[in-house]
């Protein structure tokens, strides 16, 4: 049988580490000068010695800790901005879109940020990219319904979904999400031209609807004014007037006057003379 390895007890291990520190210090006393370091504003330092967590320094200023076996993890507690690169994702309706986001975060638990993940910066960057893709698939790029949330308007449900899911994803690293905003948002190049034509068609339809509604209001006002002025208009003339006004106002071209020439009346007048 292979020999069994028994881990040393904590007391023995601590005594061994202490003896090693004293021995190195006695052999090379100038090493103590390397124990000085500075804690900057809005910064915390997690101290680890021989792979064991010792303490977290939060007070700014000059500090000293014996450098033998010591490791310092400097963690900034400032508000930090993370800009995500533009990526192609599929939105709710299945259309590919290009999207990027800006994340504002702060490290609240420096112990977790230093020891629970390999690199908290890389951790939040990877998690943020995955969350943006997942949330973008839950909402359409744009919506004709004002009450339906969409990515283009960056509705409140979209922002809440981004923040809540990203906060849950980065909790193991001791990070607090302050804000998440979409940065670039466009259709992917392969469908951009088709979507542009669709948007132009919808805009043209909306413009025509507005023109028709305004035209009907103008015609109704014109007929009311004629009636208020005491000008009686025959039903046939009224229908013709309404038809002409609708054609002139709804047409996209400038109106062209047309003169009717009654040639038959002129010839009959010459024959009588």
Mean pLDDT: 80
Name the CATH architecture of the largest domain. Answer: 2-Layer Sandwich
**End-to-end distance, in Å?**
142 Å
Give the CATH topology of the largest domain: Tetrahydropterin Synthase, Chain A
The CATH superfamily of the largest domain turns out to be Band 7 domain
Q: What's the helix-strand series?
A: HEEEEEEEEHHHEHHH
Q: What is the number of E strands?
A: 9
Helix content: 40-55%
Which structural class is indicated by helix and strand composition?
Answer: alpha+beta
* Oligomeric state, counting identical vs distinct chains: single chain
Give the class-level CATH name of the largest domain: Alpha Beta
Supply the number of helical segments.
7
Describe this structure in words.
The protein has helices at residues 10-27, 110-115, 120-136, 156-170, 189-228, 235-250, 263-272; strands at residues 36-39, 43-49, 52-57, 61-64, 70-76, 80-83, 87-90, 96-107, 175-187. With 273 residues, it is of the alpha+beta class. It folds into three domains: 19-75, no CATH class; 80-187, Band 7 domain (Tetrahydropterin Synthase, Chain A, 2-Layer Sandwich); 198-251, no CATH class. It is rod-shaped and about 120 Å long.
What is this entry, summarized?
With 273 residues, the chain is an alpha+beta fold.
Please give a handful of descriptors for the protein shown:
single chain, disordered N terminus, Tetrahydropterin Synthase, Chain A, rod-shaped, 273 residues, alpha+beta
Helices and strands in order:
Elements: H1 10-27, E1 36-39, E2 43-49, E3 52-57, E4 61-64, E5 70-76, E6 80-83, E7 87-90, E8 96-107, H2 110-115, H3 120-136, H4 156-170, E9 175-187, H5 189-228, H6 235-250, H7 263-272
Antiparallel strand pairs: 1-4, 2-3, 2-5, 6-8, 7-8, 8-9
